[in-house]
Design brief:
mainly alpha; MetI-like fold
């Protein structure tokens, strides 16, 4: 009963979307081939589940996503911890970051495809670019806002710079860094699909393009549903990771 109460809002939200979707197909005036109703999309989704093709595309997409996202997170946090402690250096780096950050990763796709070819790497690089800047900026901002009392205590105990970063700065900065992880995840997941539309022959983004070319719009919407559900699962995963880290470091969830 507790589990039912916990998940009922989620189920209610999905039910509301399906109802609005069905009403839109009835009163929207579009043919079912142009705007497939939920039942038809469900049939398409069931078909790719039964033949197993969707799981292959999901596996490939998740590999690309985690390769790009985790690499970006690790590098961005390490750089952010260092640059946050070097304000004069950050004053030089910050304008460069602010110029590059607003540029869509897709804008780099002609160069990415030329440099890395087709396959996994273009999508991984695009995901890396999408995730890197939100995490870097949130980490630098978090480090600069660390209570100076903590740093004075570390200095009194003659802690090394590495120990100060690892034991003082990182735990104190983590709540703000976690916000960057959430933003980066959403951005990276969006650009995963875009990246797979550019230089890949597999994955969820490619599945959408392939279905569109075949005019199978029910399969297009089925793929979109899968992408949305996986995005929800990944976001919840970040929440659980944040709660786990806060529990270890004695923070609040």
């Amino acid at each position: 009963m507790v589990i039912l109460r916990k998940f009922s809002p989620v189920a209610l939200g999905f039910l509301l979307v399906i109802i609005v979707w069905q009403l839109a197909t009835i009163f929207g005036g579009h043919q079912a081939a142009l705007f497939p109703p939920p039942l038809k999309v469900g049939e398409a989704l069931f078909g790719i589940i039964m033949d197993g093709s969707i799981f292959t595309h999901i596996q490939i997409s998740l590999f690309r996503f985690f390769s790009g996202y985790l690499t970006a997170v690790i590098i961005a946090i390490l750089l952010g911890l260092i640059l946050g402690r070097l304000p004069k250096v950050w004053q030089v780096i910050d304008p460069i970051v602010q110029v590059l950050r607003p540029v869509s990763p897709i804008a780099w796709s002609p160069f990415i495809v030329l440099w890395f070819g087709i396959g996994n790497m273009p999508a991984i690089v695009i995901i890396f670019l999408a995730a890197f800047f939100p995490v870097l900026l949130s980490t630098v901002s978090a480090v600069r806002k660390v209570d100076k009392t903590y740093l004075r205590i570390a200095a009194n105990f003659e802690m090394s710079q590495i120990d100060t970063l690892r034991k003082i700065v990182l735990p104190a900065s983590f709540p703000m860094i976690a916000n960057g992880l959430h933003m980066a995840l959403g951005s990276a997941w969006i650009f995963l699909v875009a990246g797979e539309m550019v230089g890949a022959q597999s994955g969820l983004g490619f599945l959408i393009i392939d279905a569109r070319n075949a005019l199978s719009l029910d399969l297009v919407l089925a793929s979109i549903v899968v992408i949305g559900v996986l995005g929800l699962v990944l976001d919840k995963g970040i929440h659980y990771f944040e709660a786990w880290v806060n529990k270890i470091w004695g923070g609040t969830t």
